[in-house]
Amino acid sequence: MSRPPVRILLVDDHAVLRAGLRLLLEREDGLEPVGEAGTAEDALRALPRLDPDVVVLDIEMPGIGGIEGAARIRERAPGARILVLSMHDQARDVRRAFDAGADGYLLKSAADEDLVRAIRAVASGERYVHPSLGAALAAPPRDGLLDRLTAREREVLRLLALGHTNQEIADRLVVSVRTVESYRAHVMVKLRVSTRAGLVRAALDGGLMEEPD
Question: Where does the chain have alpha helices with state H?
Answer without folding.
Answer: 15-26, 40-50, 65-76, 91-99, 111-123, 134-138, 151-161, 166-173, 177-191, 196-205
